[in-house]
Amino acid sequence: MKKILFPLMLIFVLALSACGNSNSSSSNKGNQSTSSDKITYESENGPVKLPAHPKRVVVLGSYTGNVMSLGVKLVGVDSWSKKNPRFQKELKNVEEVSDANVEKIMKLKPDVIIGLSNTKNVEKLKKIAPTVLFTYNKVDYLQQHIEIGKVLNKEKEAKAWVKDFKERAAEAGKEIKAKIGKDATVSVFESGTKDLYVFGDAWGRGTEILYQAMKLKMPEKVKEKALKAGYYAVSQEVIPEFAGDYMIISKNSEMDNSYQNSEIYKSIPAVKKHRVYVANAEEFYFNDPLTLEYQLSFFKKHFLGK
Question: Residue ranges of region Disordered (predicted)?
């Protein structure tokens, strides 16, 4: 999701079009083969004819890992994907693009473009290649992968991964609950330029796994303030009110992390008991399969020692 410039560029950019996590496939009805080399995908903006075997895909948004996990060639991705340390090897020869530079995208000769619903210059992009846009969080994170699978004619592969991941994440959740207690709470924070942000259950940073797949508990204050909006800004003074028995911190070293030196932060029980697990924010932002696999291994390592 998508520096808190990603968080916030992703947060504010994506929040404009977020519609919650309901109606898992009400506006994305699937695809139908129309010929041996074309399919039709029923997008939220209407039917889009696509190549049955895309070979040059551009992603303008947070779906780079979805495409990569399905083994489809990327020729252009957004800047935040290029910055992800876990993607750098695979994206070494992939161009960084944006919706502001249509000419650069045109030179890449994509056969499919995937973006967010607030992507700019959409009409120009459609003249370059079939363009499919998604509203962030209109469907849940697993259904979103299936929708990307439909676009790329890889629905079967996407569904297989979703089924397997759900089972593995649920099993890990049971193990974690058995170890930390079924009523133990977990909160997810990320630092920004001025404030600290706490997240609900569907805004990347591992929130989907912790709260949806593993069904771990969220502190009441987080539930009250962040669950519906997806995120909530907190000042140093009130961090203890939002801190769970365990804290996950998605940390960007270039942001303001001075709160960790405050006496208020140091007084939090989770901090005192060394129950704070810190992740590299640039690896933790998204909720695509590659990032989800990393997040799952991160949680198993820190909660279970695996």
Answer: 21-47
Domain membership of residue 13 (yes or no) is no
Residue span of the structural domain in which 115 resides: 22-153
In a domain, 12, yes or no: no
**pLDDT tens readout for residues 267-286:** 999 999 999 999 999 999 99
Helices 155-180 & 289-304, crossing angle to 10 degrees?
Answer: 20
For residue 90, the domain's CATH number is: 3.40.50.1980
Residue 34 falls inside a structural domain: yes
pTM given for the model: 0.88
Strands 30-35 and 38-43: antiparallel
Contact by Cβ (8 Å): 198, 242: yes
User: pLDDT band at residue 19, thresholds of 50, 70 and 90?
Assistant: very low
Percentage of residues of the chain with pLDDT beyond 90: 85
Amino acid occupying residue 9: M
Strands 131-134 and 186-191: unpaired
131 forms beta bridges with 113
